[in-house]
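The instructor's notes for this session suggest beginning with a concrete chain rather than abstract definitions. Hand out the sequence below and ask the class to guess, before any prediction is shown, which regions might be ordered.
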Amino acid sequence: MPSASCDTLLDDIEDIVSQEDSKPQDRHFARKYVVPKVRKRNTQTDLQEENSPPSDSTIPGIQKIWIRTWGCSHNNSDGEYMAGQLAAYGYKITENASDADLWLLNSCTVKNPAEDHFRNSIKKAQEENKKVVLAGCVPQAQPRQDYLKGLSIIGVQQIDRVVEVVEETIKGHSVRLLGQKKDNGKRLGGARLDLPKIRKNPLIEIISINTGCLNACTYCKTKHARGNLASYPIDELVDRAKQSFQEGVCEIWLTSEDTGAYGRDIGTDLPTLLWNLVEVIPEGAMLRLGMTNPPYILEHLEEMAKILNHPRVYAFLHIPVQSASDSVLMDMKREYCMADFKRVVDFLKEKKVFPQEMMSSLVPGITIATDIICGFPGETEQDFQETVKLVEEYRFPSLFINQFYPRPGTPAAKMEQVPAQVKKQRTKDLSRIFHSYNPYDHKIGERQQVLVTEESFDSKFYVAHNRFYEQVLVPKNPPFMGKMVEVDIYESGKHFMKGQPVSDARVYTPSISKPLAKGEVSGLTQIEI
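After discussion, reveal the predicted structure:
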């Protein structure tokens, strides 16, 4: 078997692992057949030394690993899968970075600040003499950047091989797996969905339904990493949902770079997937649909409205508009105009008069979340004012405002840029308008059913969501966690409401089994460790 020094950069892990060598998972499941040689121990010290390898040991499978993830829910799902596989193999996942032997840094390439944090974390790891494995969209999109040289990389479609990469990195090798998953030449959605994972929140399962997209937005770096659309089959997604509910999950998030494009590469569509999924959701559990771009939701508007009216689906839709100027949208290559976006929102929110036969498909009270980029190249003051008018008209309760950052290698980076001070001012102006209204004041006094799934950042409340995926803070009563609770709304803020549980109301348990403990590995119920 060829050797590799610490300074050797290998294109693929197969360069040091031959076909004849057993793979990590094979060695892991063969452990129960290993008969240790018995020798006489003279002292307790001997026993302690044998059971506790030295801290600088290079034996794989015993080290502590710290995982940091930036970015979207798709990236978070990838991080959960990598943590699960490493823990299942024997590595200890730690929340203490300084205590870890290896840092697994799972990056986001959407904006410059996210990559800056990633780069700074690499530098800090090196200063602290930590082993490093890089993951996510930054190294996948630009693996030859100077600050990535000599470091191990696991590609976004290779996360099922994270154990191998970590193993070799622990030994001192630098390996890179950046290839695409294919079946008979056809690109797949990614790694298997039934891999072990550690959910950040045991009550919430994040399912990536597809990777990549069909667009070519001029500002987007993620396309360079995730590529073109590749969807998972419906049966695999339904099976993953079933497994999640069997492990105590009460809320599912569907995610991807564009959920609306799901299935166009495999002869199906998003509504068909959703109708299959709602059949396996237990009563009281909920499904949240991830981001969808306007062009694809337009094709299924009436059917999507019916699904969003389903009692086990949140009446919530994230539709990024990015700009209210058709001129800017054209430069962005967004493939829709302002009228398309408004048609989607108006139809779902009943803002306009539609034919009577469509009225049953509308979604009263639906939450529309959107994104806006301020200062895109070529954006004039008139273009920006059109965006301001859109926000003032629709008063979006959830609005993600982003200052434009030119990402290397994208067409938008080569365009004439809006001055930095103008971009900053427009971002501030739009943020001020967004914070000038309170979207939930009119809901004070309402009685709502809410699903409790997590603790607030300040640890003073539990966080729940109502039918419209609006955040409701409730008292920290442990029996409420993971339950559907009836509350009376008595206070509202910009991003939340506060609810008082109704004294005589029934607390409903949507889970069909007890949730896994925090840090427990999902998917190992049938595996003997």
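Then share the key points. The mean pLDDT is 87. The first helix runs from residue 24 to 29.
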